[in-house]
Amino acid sequence: MNLPKEKANEYRAQARRLREKLDSYIDEHPDFTLKKMLLSGSLAKGTALRSLNDIDVACYISGADAPRDVTILLEYLAERLRKAFPNFSADQVEPQTYSVTVSFRGTGLDVDVVPILYSDDPQWYGNLVSQDDGSYLETCIPLHLEFIRKRKQAQETHFAQLVRLIKFWVRNLKRERGDFKFKSFMVEMILAHLSDQGFDFSDYPEALQHFFTYVVKSRLRERIVFDDYHTPSEVGSFTEPVQIIDPVNFKNNVSCLYTEADADAIVDAALDAGDAIDAALAAPTKEKTVYYWQKIFGSSFQI
Ligand SMILES: Nc1ncnc2c1ncn2[C@@H]1O[C@H](COP(=O)(O)OP(=O)(O)OP(=O)(O)O)[C@@H](O)[C@H]1O
Ligand SMILES: [Mg+2]
Description:
Layout: H1 5-28, E1 34-39, H2 41-45, E2 55-62, H3 70-84, E3 93-95, E4 100-102, E5 111-118, E6 126-129, E7 136-139, H4 141-154, H5 158-176, H6 184-196, H7 204-218, H8 260-282, H9 286-297
Parallel strand pairs: 2-5
Antiparallel strand pairs: 1-2, 3-4, 4-5, 5-6, 6-7
The protein binds adenosine-5'-triphosphate (ATP) and magnesium ion (MG).
């Protein structure tokens, strides 16, 4: 299920070459409004699945005279990326709904460039275009990467592996029913919360069971807040049913788009998964054990 290390390195190198190309263009054109590119998403966090299908890169755009309308902003970003990457043909740099895709002919994956409007914040806070609904989210990708890095250090290999296992479970559910959703970043925040409470992730069946039990018991209606960058008492009030607060911006609820029904669907699925783990652990034969794990992760899952 994991993206092999060599593949991850190859894709990171692909993103790095784009970033370096932009950097050298900026050196020659210091007034250029694209300021930098930064690997974001699962490849940056070391939580990618083998099924990774694009490379997420954030691109910082100087906010002052950039268009605010997302469709126009994406055209603007595409046009400037074409300038910075003259050896790409125009049709290799195409605006999508909420990002711009840079396609590589032949090898490699496509790079998905997500705009961030930015006004020289020294920590690289900026307004990220949400890939869920195109709204602007004030957030800070470098601090997110640091946040995840801390949890990975606290539970070496196990934190990232648990993220992958749960994402694999989510992917299987999405395949079964189209309307199921459970954002990877929310999964990571919940696991960070459990890790911060001192739970040890080294026994994977037990850690998975702990995650599913937490989801069922809390019904995802308990607010999750972290104290890495702000004092938890400073968190504002929210009205949404699921409240997982962005550790770097206490005004941003990472799960603001999740309805009661979305949350209930996750809770029901977690209940089933928890039952299947119990059954797998109690199963008398290898076949039975595999049968129950495949109920959770799908028929491609082998042990
Ligand atoms: N609602 C949000 N608020 C703030 N930042 C967000 C939000 N959604 C996504 N991000 C930022 O975008 C990054 C990538 O999003 P996400 O975690 O959902 O995808 P991913 O890690 O690439 O997972 P996948 O394997 O599903 O593509 C996050 O690590 C976070 O920095
Ligand atoms: Mg991604």
